[in-house]
């Protein structure tokens, strides 16, 4: 079961500390209020992604790409197109892994870890992760982004992630990059591109 891809999929980035400026309490309050208001108006998101995984034992980062489709409140499809073709679909408390014409169904309602991951997946994409009490959040201004550095509190999450960083476009308030820091040396970076908001997505897209 492509658990590594699932974990990568779950977290939609941590850059250099240099040239970063912490947001004031007033700025944080205003930002969170604006993001909450923005999220309330989002019914769907879709676009393309480029994923880069850096591991200490690899000479070159592993790269893959594809597209994602999200429909509020909990339907999400992550489609890998290169270098391999397969997809991960979360819908109705179930995970479907589709590959080479075969579909594997996994019930997540009885699996605490998968259930938690499924919640975090959608929250990373639509920005609701910022209001998740399972994380301590620190905001910084970094170049053209506002970065939200999320430190997990839950032991189950700490087991596979040291830090999650969301790169937020200050103009659109959309998450455009996600970085999963597994440790000081290993990370996965996901760049979301060509993001389209509130286009009609038919429910048939989320049928396995």
TrEMBL record:
Q: Which residues form a coiled coil?
A: 21-48
Where would you find the membrane-spanning parts of this chain?
Answer: none
Q: Where does the record locate the signal sequence feature?
A: 1-19
Instruction: Quote the protein name from its UniProt record.
Output: Outer membrane lipoprotein carrier protein LolA
Keyword check for Nuclease, yes or no.
Answer: no
Q: Does the keyword Chaperone apply?
A: no
Which Pfam families does the record cross-reference, listed alphabetically?
LolA (PF03548)
Q: Which CDD domains match?
A: LolA
Write out the entry's keywords from A to Z. Coiled coil, Lipoprotein, Signal
């Amino acid at each position: 079961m492509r658990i590594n891809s699932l974990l990568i999929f779950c977290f939609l980035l941590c850059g250099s500390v240099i040239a970063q400026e912490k947001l004031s309490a007033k700025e944080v309050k205003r930002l969170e209020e604006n993001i909450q208001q923005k999220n309330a108006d989002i019914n769907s998101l879709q676009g393309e992604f480029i994923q880069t995984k850096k591991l200490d034992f690899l000479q070159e980062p592993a790269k893959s790409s594809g597209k994602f489709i999200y429909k509020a409140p909990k339907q999400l499809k992550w489609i890998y197109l290169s270098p391999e073709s397969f997809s991960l679909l979360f819908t109705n408390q179930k995970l479907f892994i589709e590959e080479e014409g075969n579909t594997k169904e996994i019930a997540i309602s009885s699996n605490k870890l998968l259930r938690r991951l499924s919640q975090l997946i959608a929250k990373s994409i639509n920005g609701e992760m910022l209001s998740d009490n399972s994380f301590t959040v620190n905001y910084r201004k970094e170049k053209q982004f506002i970065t939200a550095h999320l430190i997990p509190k839950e032991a189950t999450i700490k087991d596979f992630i040291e830090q999650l960083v969301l790169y937020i476009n200050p103009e659109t308030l959309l998450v455009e990059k996600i970085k999963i820091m597994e440790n000081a040396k290993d990370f996965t970076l996901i760049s979301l591109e060509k993001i389209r908001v509130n286009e009609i997505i038919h429910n048939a897209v989320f049928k396995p």
